Amino acid sequence: MVVDNDKLEENQLEGGEEEASADMSGLYEASIKEFSEGQIVKGKVIGVQSNDVLIDIGYKSEGLISRSEFPDPASIKVGDEVEVLLESLEDENGMVVLSKRKAERTKGWERIISDFKEGDVISGVVTKKVKGGFTVDIGVEAFLPASLATLKGFANTGQLLGQKADFKIVKINKPRKNVVLSRKDVLMQEKEENKARLLSNIVKGMIIPGTVKNITDFGAFIDLGGMDGLLHITDMNWGRISHPSEMLAIGDKVEVMVLDFDKDNMRISLGLKQKTPNPWLDADTKYPIGSKVKGEVVNLVPYGAFIELEKGIEGLIHISEFSWTKRYNNPNELLAIGDKVEAVVLDIDKNNQKISLGLKQLEADPWQGVDEKYPAGTSIKGKVRNLTDYGAFIELEDGIDGLIHISDMSWTRKINHPKEVLKKGQRIEAVVLSIDKNNRKISLGMKQLIGDPWTAIVDKYKIDSVVSVKITKLTNFGLFVELEKDLEGLIHISEIDLPQDAKLETSFKVGDALEARVVKVDGEQRKIALSVKK
User: Fold this and answer.
1) What's the pLDDT tens digit per position in 442-497?
2) For 366-395, what is each residue's pLDDT tens digit?
3) What is the distance between the alpha carbons of residues 6 and 384, in angstroms, rounded to a whole number?
């Protein structure tokens, strides 16, 4: 038998090709069976383009994934292995449709379903703000309602964006693959835990950290991490502050001292100034009575000026202590806030934290020796400085006034008001009646410049004598009449014959001349009674 080698080789090759073709066909069929849409498979990066990444999953065709689906697109390199979701076996270009992001979400959802339940706490990152709340990445996209994002009083929800935090799972909706979270519940739990820890450890005098939560006119509320404490404005600074906002702002971190604590009513009183020594402890040694001090005007009130001697220590200069000689109606007539002044310490009450100061004590007191300068009986001259209902103040010299009471203005005339005989600014002469140096009072008299005329008056106007008079004033009880210059008498209504139903004001008028009879002359009371009865 002759063997045709060429023919044999040809037959062998044809057999091999048929066998190889059968193997490839089997592999292809197997590949079709191994992949299904919706499946998560592993793939390998075989190409990186400007916008897309080419992935080989071992299927008959490759797939493209947008680079935006990778957390760090710049780090992608050929050979990297990735898990992807097979969305479709073939698109219009014959390529598989893949998604890395959907694969991650699917795996995340599977993890949520298997590892967590409602009420559990899970970590996540707040990724973006959406209508009604926020989206949180917990492996899947979850929803955080705005109402459950923070505790009451901490409404700056914008700070949550990009933050990693713990959240409580409020609801898991499996059909919709939806998760609702609460940050508020986690914060409440943390607050209760901190509160319990604070209650078990707090003692008076301890220093604790806190955050300024709210500011009012009377103080600031400090969040101590579980409960709030009140820092009253009087416990913020040893010195003067008008409003807590001068020292604190909402959100400030502070360290405060626990001054008092009421566990039953859950109240904590806090202090800032108590962290430093009380400057009043040795104030009586630093500022003894009679010493001269310097300070700055920090406040003006209608009754005086407050002077800061050092931080935490202020003294009051009462308006009456401004000057010996000049009278001020308001402190701003002499001082302004910020003025540097020197004063004398008049009194100090360390326990009540009060210092009385004086300005006028820096100068000599004009009342020293006034009793020697103006002894009783001395005739003086002065200017009418002021008129009151009861008398006139006469300025003898700067800082020294005397009072002429209306009863000391005339021996014989009834004076109802000083303006009847004196006017402001008028220069007059008077006699010093008495001096009270301790109370800084001088009594003066005008009528004492002449002798008492009533001895002569008693002798001149005898009972039942008839005199000519002129009406000077009408009253409801009678008529005042002038007997002579500065000498008045009274005709009582009972000493007047009036027709029935007649009235004094219709029967008489000021200036009328009458003939009257003297019925009584009282030298001690300095009164003359007259009658016009027939």
Assistant:
1) 999 998 888 788 878 888 888 989 999 999 989 989 999 998 888 889 999 999 98
2) 888 888 888 988 899 999 999 999 999 999
3) 157
Query: Could you tell me if 309 and 269 lie in one domain?
Result: no
- Asked if residue 293 has pLDDT above 50, the reply is yes
29-38 pLDDT tens trace: 544 447 777 7
CA separation (Å) from 166 to 137, 144, 323, 490?
11, 12, 70, 102
Residue span of the structural domain in which 61 resides: 35-115
CA–CA separation, 285 and 346 (whole Å): 14
Amino acid at 164: K
Alpha helices in 351-445 (DSSP H): 370-373
pLDDT for res 45: 86
Angle at CA of residue 51, ends 50 and 57, nearest 5°: 105
> b/e per residue, 182-193, with b = 16+ CB within 10 A?
bbbbbbeeeeee
| DSSP secondary structure code for residue 61 in this structure | S
d(CA 274, CA 252): 19
Q: Are residues 293 and 358 in the same domain?
A: yes
228 located within any domain? yes
Cross-strand bridge partners of residue 43: 82
Contacts of 332 (CB under 8 A, 6+ apart): 300
Q: What is the CATH classification number for the domain harbouring 158?
A: 2.40.50.140
Give the separation between CA 209 and CA 170, rounded to whole angstroms: 32
Amino acid occupying residue 24: M
Question: What value, to the nearest 5°, has the Cα angle with vertex 341 and ends 337 and 344?
Answer: 130
Q: How many domains is the chain built from?
A: 7
User: What are the beta bridge partners of residue 522?
Assistant: 527
**Dist. CA 513–CA 158, nearest whole Å:** 98
Kindly tell me if the per-residue pLDDT of 520 is higher than 50. yes
| Judgement on whether residues 236 and 214 belong to the same structural domain of the protein | yes
| 93 domain-assigned | yes
Selection from 38, 45, 117, 113 nearest residue 78 by Cα: 45
Q: Which helix or strand (DSSP H or E) is residue 519 part of? A: strand 513-522
Q: Which of 337, 362, 387 is the last residue of a domain?
A: 362
Q: What is the pLDDT of residue 157?
A: 65
For residue 196, tell me if it sits in a domain: no
Report the pLDDT value the prediction gives residue 31, as an integer from 0 to 100: 47
pLDDT for res 297: 95
Burial 215-254 (b: 16+ CB within 10 A, else e): beeebbbbbbbebbbbbbbebbbbeeeeebeebbeeeeeb
pTM exceeding 0.70: no
Each residue's pLDDT tens digit, 248-258: 999 899 999 99
CA gyration radius, the chain: 53
Strand stretches in 336-493, DSSP E = 340-349, 354-358, 379-387, 391-397, 400-405, 427-436, 441-445, 466-475, 478-484, 487-492
For residues 307 and 344, the answer to whether their CB atoms sit within 8 Å is no
